[in-house]
Design brief:
The complex is a heterodimer of chains A (107) and B (122). Chain A is mostly beta strands. Helices cover 0% and strands 50% of the residues of chain A. Chain A has no helices and 11 strands. The termini of chain A are far apart. The relative contact order of chain B is 0.31. Chain B contains no helices and 11 strands. In chain B, a hairpin with a 6-residue loop joins strand 4 and strand 5. The chains are: A mainly beta (107), B mainly beta (122).
């Protein structure tokens, strides 16, 4: 199985901050990497697919980059509604696997 | 707009079978542009992919669960289902159904159902 490791596991930031979350794969997944946002008690929501493609309806302050084994999710200017947990997921090979999550909290 | 909704018992006894159904609305479950997935999340933990079923009938399961899992589709009801046998407390989780999308070989899950908490307890 491909292991996905996110860092940091938690992060405190303020409204307006620029935030970067990292996801590392245990082997190359090319650009088969997706990012999801999950708020408490809710289902995950797709933000970015294929490493850098913004899902329709997602604000442009979210962006993704990377290929191979190293990927980043960047939020350019944090908004109050962005405080949530973020997961990366590889779709390169089954079993599809997720990172352990990064919890973004208000400072 | 595609919507998914899980349904099924919220409590299952140890050693019994967990059964959940996902009802799809807004489009046909037979459309080739979709595949259908189950994903679970133990309380306070991360996400675990359970398996996918394609319109062709091809199914992929997580090897960690493969001996206990069955995913099936009922096109007449626009539903797909999950069965997990011989459950233990470790199977307690929120179970999500999701629509899989694919394009140029890329795959992602969107949208997801709201989730169904299943507790395994006697």
């Amino acid at each position: 199985d491909i292991q996905m490791t996110q860092s940091p596991s938690s992060l405190s930031a303020s409204v307006g901050d620029r935030v970067t979350i990292t996801c590392r794969a245990s082997q190359s997944v090319a650009n088969y990497l997706n990012w999801y946002q999950q708020k408490p008690g809710k289902a995950p929501k797709l933000l970015i697919y294929a490493a850098s493609n913004l899902q329709s309806g997602v604000p442009s302050r979210f962006s993704g980059s990377g290929s191979g084994t190293d990927f980043t999710l960047t939020i350019s200017s944090l908004q109050p509604e962005d405080f949530a947990t973020y997961f990366c997921q590889q779709s390169y090979s089954t079993p599809y696997t997720f990172g352990q999550g990064t919890k973004l909290q208000i400072k | 707009q595609l919507q998914l909704q899980e349904s099924g018992p919220g409590l299952v006894k140890p050693s019994e079978t967990l059964s959940l159904t996902c009802t799809v609305s807004g489009d046909s479950i037979s459309r080739s542009s979709y595949y259908w997935a189950w994903i679970r999340q133990p309380p306070g933990k991360g996400l675990e992919w359970i398996g996918n079923i394609y319109y062709t009938g091809t199914i992929y399961y997580n090897p960690s669960l493969k001996s206990r899992v069955t995913i099936s589709v009922d096109t007449s009801k626009n539903q797909f289902s999950l069965m997990l046998t011989s459950v233990t407390a470790a199977d307690t989780a929120v179970y999500y159904c999701a629509s899989g999308n694919w394009n140029y070989g890329q795959r992602w899950f969107d949208p997801w159902g709201q989730g169904s908490l299943v507790t395994v307890s006697s």
